[in-house]
């Protein structure tokens, strides 16, 4: 079977773990990685991550010129860099290469750009690309409709060093129409990787939807899931949330 | 607005709480209650439950004769008695009165009978009629399809005195195709009203769906929900689970 | 065996449950109950709470005169009324009757009064008299000393209608030296009876101490525990917390 | 300040993490590591673990001869190897070097040997050396004494691949006198690092003591804690549990 060739933007803490996950799946071959700095220039991501083979040659953003994507063709692009990474792969988008943009926060200008891209190719943008968080997000919206009188609160727990409120939790609050100041509770202690809880309180019963992150590899698995989904999809703008919502629809139990 | 007239079978611990919930909702009027024994014969359930008005005259099962349902017409029947209660309201079913049968366990004979009833009227049978448990049940089945590689375990916690495994937990295991011996864990301590947890373990993340019962009134609220739903439905066999599954389908978020 | 005679101040929601618990324990006899209003004057608390015997004659606060405690002697006083209840039983305190004051919040004046009482008799004052909460409070203080670098957060969950922050949670924050604004998180949803969680986050592990209330009867059990303890103790000021701390000391495992 | 010289036995998954933790603490210098095989012979553990300096030269067990501990003196020994590692450092023990043996399970013969060692030096043996688990263990024993009527259940959750019951959970059951078959519940799903919960159920309240492992580094931190404690202690047999119990005693809150 022909392997799916992947190019990754971003080689920070999460980017490395994501590269690692793609390297471990035989379905994929990691073609290259683009990082901001010149560090480890032309080395192989595979070697840096402890593998005994060459894969994922490392380029700097200065290496990206008009011919880059022609000379080093990939079947899908995965972006874990930052909000400005998107400006680098306009050519790839126009050439119809599917894109997974796992970027926490875009400004309006980049959102416009991604919409332009989506005319040429399948583009998926999600601030949190893990399966579990998106399952929670969809289930919570349904539950809110089924039990409209339930009181809802969100609790998110992360390691002490995480300064800002969880963007994922803010997103959950937004889709549920909850005021962040009032209904989002942030706990910062020790080394908790990530824990999101949505509490539905009714007079005689409580429902809790709970997601616990064990490792950042969940982001890599989410990206793998997203790439597999995008291949074969028509051009358009996708999110993990819409994919999961669609999967909910297709998997409603039949009696 | 015309009130919905309710007749209740069963006046045990749960039956009383259910009667109480119907008495508290102005949409309903409690016409009568049928209990097994002659205790409190012809008294009013409302008075016994601390209300200052007359409602829910108490009858014994010996009072049920062919004309009972004609003389004391109701708009819906709610059965929290036991597996044999069903034999008492054949006439009512044939007359097209909607029935909510919240019975933990029927033998084949009673299942056949309920199917017969369902030709004449809308019959809902659910071993656990609470909203929350059925939401958990439907969400778990969908999640199992979305994340087929997740390991699933069920933990149910109840008060020390509850001898048998939670029928609800067994039902959850069954719909998920899980071996009860291997994947259902029962905790019996102190006075826990009821807690059901479904754990989905993936390599890098864990999802937990959790339902905590606060009081038996949740059964009354479930019965109210079921009665409202059944009124206006065509004859047929319904379950809370199918209703909730349908509500999932209708409330998938649209983007 | 001679029964312990109890007098209760307060017959509100909690007071009733407490009376109920004392009525259910054969070690005790409920001599009387004093309530603010004239409601149910001279009726028996036992009858109002569904028992078939006479116990706990109900008096109004206007009935309390100098001779009251001589005419209706008790072995211990239990106060679940309010911060001003204390002014009623000065005579009883001076006569050496042990007092359990389960009052959420006293002003300085009442604190002074209780100190005066403690010269004559054993007085226990605790805003939360449940065993579990006091166990949590003591264990948390020890744990904070053992793991001084752990980050600590408190989460308290209660029913939607509870307007104010849990006094118990504030007390926990205070004994741990935590800023209430920063480290105390309040969740208000549905019908949750009461849930207090203390989270100790360390870089590689998390410890959670969790207390869940099932019913207000826990206050009655706490009062029973307190009365049993106070009988036989010398005059002085006690709290549930100091008693539990003492029990911790006596029960450190020996190897 | 003079650094504390450490020798480590064992360089498997946990041994590596433990070495890593010692390398990160400036109070310590890692003198050497002994592993079973000849792999990475005479390389530096520090280099293998990504550090840019030389520390922790790697020896095989075949390198251990009578003069080993004289030629390469350390201030404390830490053993994360296996039950037979103990036979290698008899000479070190006789020379009075403190020993931390974090071995899950010893047979009687090794228990006897460790007792012999404890005549010459301070020896600490604990199957689980994390602070949190030992805090749970001590707190649970105290709580059982304070609330003797509480029902107790243990739930332990670990990754799917863990075949056997958690030795730590078995140990908790044993100190609480609980039948493992009846009161210990094991959940095996996905990638859960480790979670131990002790549930105390009372009629009106539930207390839960919960420990969640985030990473194996907790074992390294536990070893560091143990070494610091042992230095300066007289010869004898210690356990983390006894040390934590002693810390409980010293930190009972005073009012």
TrEMBL record, chains A, B, C, D:
Pathway it works in: Amino-acid biosynthesis; L-lysine biosynthesis via DAP pathway; (S)-tetrahydrodipicolinate from L-aspartate: step 4/4
One example GO MF annotation: 4-hydroxy-tetrahydrodipicolinate reductase
Domain Dihydrodipicolinate reductase C-terminal stretches: 132-243
UniProt EC number: 1.17.1.8
Signal sequence residues: none
Keyword set, alphabetical order: Amino-acid biosynthesis, Diaminopimelate biosynthesis, Lysine biosynthesis, NAD, NADP, Oxidoreductase
Record-linked InterPro entries: DapB_C, DapB_N, DHDPR_bac, NAD(P)-bd_dom_sf
Domain Dihydrodipicolinate reductase N-terminal: 4-128
Catalytic activity: (S)-2,3,4,5-tetrahydrodipicolinate + NAD(+) + H2O = (2S,4S)-4-hydroxy-2,3,4,5-tetrahydrodipicolinate + NADH + H(+); (S)-2,3,4,5-tetrahydrodipicolinate + NADP(+) + H2O = (2S,4S)-4-hydroxy-2,3,4,5-tetrahydrodipicolinate + NADPH + H(+)
PANTHER family to which the protein is assigned, alphabetical: 4-HYDROXY-TETRAHYDRODIPICOLINATE REDUCTASE 1, CHLOROPLASTIC-RELATED, DIHYDRODIPICOLINATE REDUCTASE
Stated family: Belongs to the DapB family.
Protein name: 4-hydroxy-tetrahydrodipicolinate reductase
Organism the protein comes from: Sporomusa acidovorans (strain ATCC 49682 / DSM 3132 / Mol)
Species classification: Bacteria, Bacillati, Bacillota, Negativicutes, Selenomonadales
Gene symbol of the encoding locus: dapB_2
